[in-house]
Each structure stands twice: as structure tokens, then as C-alpha cells.
Design brief:
mainly alpha
Length: about 150
């Protein structure tokens, strides 16, 4: 709620506090969301070590958001060596579990050619799938690709 500002004022610090409480209770989604905030430095200081640890725990239980966060860390080389191939593999695994974020990242990967050959059609397909699942940034990227 606080992270997205749903029915409350958007507040990344509050979101981090609530995700931390959930993570401490073993909630995998809380762990993965907190990992994302650590990866991006939203509401808390960026901490790639904590982002990795929380994500890896979530991945052990096949959590698609955890997979997506680790994919992002690999894609950007945050807290580990940059490994676009591994990022792609993790995004695909998460997308198979209907992760809109992973689908959005796949669209970006195919649009920019990070670790793959640029493939506009593949990018459009992934952005469309992400949009169908409610990923708002996918609309902007999709519109831009369809205009080009």
C-alpha cells in the first residue's frame, strides 16, 4: 500500500518498515519487496548485500519476485558481476510464473539488446504481457515501440 500509494499517501520509508516486519515473519513477498527497495535505495539506503540475501531466500521457495530482483541485480551488476545471460534466465523463470515485473524487464532486454539480439517483436510481446498484468510503465515503452 505505502510503496504504491494505494489508499494511503505514498511513503517508501513506511513501505520498507512494513516489508521488514513481513520479512521477519518469513513472508516471501515481504522479503522480495524489501529486497527491491534495498536494490533501488527507496525508503532505505541502497544495500546490495541485503537485497541479495533477501532475494535468494525468496528464490529458494520459488518466489518470482525474488527471481526478478536477482535478475535485476545481475543485469545491472549490482553487488555481483554483471551477468546479462543469468538475468535473462531468471526473468524468464519469473515470467513463467506471471511476474509482470519480469515481463517488463524482458521487454527492456529485447528492446535494448542487453545480452540478446535486439528483437522489437519480442519486446512488444513482453511489454504487452506485462501491461495485461497491470505493469504501468509497460504502456509507455509499448507506445514508443509501436510508434517507431
Amino acid at each position: 500500500m505505502y510503496e504504491k500509494g494505494i489508499e494511503v499517501k505514498q511513503d517508501a520509508r513506511q513501505a520498507a518498515a512494513w516489508y521488514n516486519k513481513a520479512a521477519q515473519r518469513g513472508n516471501l513477498w515481504g522479503m522480495a519487496r524489501l529486497a527491491w527497495l534495498y536494490a533501488k535505495g527507496r525508503g532505505i539506503d541502497a544495500n546490495y548485500e541485503k537485497a541479495w540475501a533477501l532475494s535468494e531466500h525468496a528464490v529458494r521457495y520459488n518466489n518470482p519476485l525474488g527471481m526478478s530482483v536477482i535478475g535485476y541485480l545481475y543485469e545491472k551488476g549490482l553487488g555481483a558481476f554483471k551477468d546479462e545471460e543469468k538475468a535473462l534466465e531468471l526473468y524468464k523463470q519469473a515470467a513463467e510464473q506471471n511476474s509482470a515485473f519480469a515481463m517488463f524487464r524482458l521487454g527492456s532486454v529485447y528492446q535494448t539488446g542487453k545480452g540478446v539480439v535486439v528483437d522489437k517483436d519480442e519486446a512488444i510481446m513482453w511489454y504487452r504481457r506485462a501491461l495485461e498484468l497491470g505493469h504501468k510503465k509497460a504502456q509507455k515503452r509499448l507506445s514508443k515501440l509501436l510508434k517507431d
